[in-house]
Automatic annotation (TrEMBL):
Belongs to the carboxylate-amine ligase family. Glutamate--cysteine ligase type 2 subfamily. GO terms for molecular function: ATP binding; glutamate-cysteine ligase activity. Pfam families: GCS2. This is Glutamate--cysteine ligase. InterPro entries: GCL_bact_plant, GCS2, Gln_synth/guanido_kin_cat_dom, Glut_cys_lig_pln_type. The keyword Disulfide bond applies. It is found in: Plastid, Chloroplast. The lineage of its organism: Eukaryota, Viridiplantae, Streptophyta, Embryophyta, Tracheophyta. SUPFAM superfamilies: Glutamine synthetase/guanido kinase.
Length: 515
């Protein structure tokens, strides 16, 4: 998700956004117009009917602007294009790669990536690869998307900078181009999907079906991961095939700015996990968690996941993250359009040509970039920072998560207040919150109260930060204000429905959270 901070839309250049794809435009508008927008973006049939005209989506209107300015949402998938190198890489090259993400505040953007489960409307079963291929081919033919192929298999679509990609179990990830709308991309998907009897579910964990019911996508990268996961954790396959997330990506201006935002985001990630908790069901019944998706990450692969305590060290910076990443076991190297299994080997060994899979070969910056995408902490550093703690959810909450993080991290006053707030939180407390919120959410005890009380202060800082940006952005937090005030998470509301009018069935969730 990219935002042109204090710049009119027509002054936002694509060259400034080359690191991002994915687009949704968001605004805070009058209540009755909001209702009209929600009807347009939430109804499965309404979205399909509206596909022939360009969706206006949601956008941020700017105070004092006659036409308004837009918050353009973009995400940043890794590239597989070759990066030519003429000399062996050094550690300094890897540090410089991360540091090259530094940019002045006027060029900061906001990225978001979001995933959803495809299912057969008639049976609620997950759609298989053949159905996915039919859907992708239909979208390509009708709306002029380019197919992304792996061998003979279509595994995604691209149209300019926007893309539709597949997660391991066939979860769809939509990301539109800068200056485009994610709503339009979604509408095009739905126009074809409706004809094929396919719907999409916005939730954090597959609520009904077992692992054996989930299709496996024909992607070499995922085949390597699938074989490796049982060696390093008990829930890796659940992560791959049964989870969906919403992710927010934010920029930084310097190494100091990066580390300040990194610390604030890591410490507060459990609050985001709780506020957006939306995965209480597994295989048709309550699973004992409010965020099963978040719990799954605690036993997927702790060599590459977690809360990164070293970020809070006084010496932390780009170099320390490089040192960490060099020792995270690799998954693969991509050569000649094929994935080569390098599981368990280190990028540090690769740097000196000691990978048994490709002996004597040295890495490119593209290898480094791809390796960084296989590291999965709660906040991830690339050439921007990725907030990874939230469950997938419905359209109506799509803009709440980026608004939350923008208000906290893109406003200097709010950021400093957060850093002051978390300054004496211990590593043990941060880890406790990471683990407990998956079960008890905002009701998690913390010091002399509940996490909800901290979340109230944090939400106030986020709103204040948005207000100081002089946009009408704070309204996006309305979707989570009641959650924080009451301490009742989206997952708990789903559980109430399950035990009440749904009659202990999860089937109605496919309609409740239908995109």
């Amino acid at each position: 998700m990219a935002i042109a901070s204090r710049l009119p839309l027509n002054r936002v250049h694509r060259s400034e956004m080359l690191n991002y794809t994915g687009g949704v435009e968001c605004d805070v508008i009058s209540k009755d117009r909001q209702l009209r927008v929600r009807r347009n973006v939430m109804g499965f049939r309404n979205m399909a009917r509206n596909v022939e005209r360009r969706s206006q989506g949601l956008r941020f209107d700017v105070v004092g602007s006659r036409r308004g300015q837009r918050m353009v949402v973009a995400a940043s998938p890794p590239t597989e294009d070759a990066v030519v190198t003429t000399e062996p890489l050094t550690k300094e090259d890897l540090v410089r790669y991360l540091a090259s993400g530094c940019k002045p505040k006027e060029k900061w953007r906001i990225g978001t990536e979001h995933e959803k489960f495809g299912f057969e409307v008639a049976t609620l079963r997950p759609i298989n690869y053949e159905q996915i291929a039919d859907l992708l081919n239909g979208i390509s033919e009708r709306f002029d998307w380019d197919k992304v192929m792996e061998g003979d298999y279509v595994i995604g679509l691209k149209q300019g900078k926007q893309s539709i990609s597949l997660e391991p179990g066939g979860q769809f990830e939509l990301s539109g181009a800068p200056l485009e709308t994610l709503h339009q991309t979604c509408a095009e998907v739905k126009a074809v999907a409706e004809e094929l009897g396919i719907g999409f579910l916005g939730i954090g964990f597959q609520p009904k079906w077992e692992l054996k019911d989930i299709p496996i996508m024909p992607k070499g990268r995922y085949d390597i991961m699938r074989k490796y996961m049982p060696k390093v954790g008990s829930l890796g396959h659940d992560m791959m095939f049964r989870t969906c997330t919403v992710q927010v990506n934010l920029d930084f201006s310097s190494e100091l700015d990066m580390i300040r935002k990194f610390r604030a985001a890591l410490a507060l990630q459990p609050i985001a996990t709780a506020v957006f908790a939306n995965s209480p069901f597994t295989e048709g019944k309550p699973n004992g968690y409010l965020s099963m998706r978040s719990h799954v990450w605690t036993d997927t692969d702790n060599n590459r996941a977690g809360m990164l305590p070293f970020v809070f060290d006084d010496s932390s910076g780009f170099e320390q993250y490089v040192e960490y990443a060099l020792d995270v076991p690799m998954y693969f190297v991509y050569r000649n359009k094929k994935y080569i299994d390098c599981t368990g080997m280190s990028f540090r060994d690769f740097m000196v040509g000691k990978l048994p899979s490709i002996p004597g070969e040295l890495p490119t910056l593209n290898d480094w970039e791809n390796h960084l995408t296989t590291i999965f902490p709660e906040v991830r550093l690339k050439r921007y920072l990725e907030m990874r703690g939230a469950d997938g959810g419905p359209w109506r909450r799509l803009c709440a998560l980026p608004a939350f993080w923008v208000g906290l991290l893109y406003d200097e006053v709010s950021l400093q207040n957060v850093l002051d707030m978390i300054a004496d939180w211990t590593e043990e407390e941060r880890q406790m919150l990471r683990e407990k919120v998956t079960i008890t959410g905002l009701k998690t005890p913390f010091r002399d109260g509940l996490l909800r009380h901290v979340a109230e202060d944090v939400l106030k800082l986020a709103k204040d930060g948005l207000e100081r940006r002089c946009y009408k952005e704070a309204g996006f937090l309305n979707e989570v204000t009641e959650v924080v005030r009451t301490g009742v998470t989206p997952a708990e509301k789903l559980l109430e429905l399950y035990h009440g009018k749904w009659g202990c069935s999860v089937d109605p969730v496919f309609e409740e959270l239908l995109y």
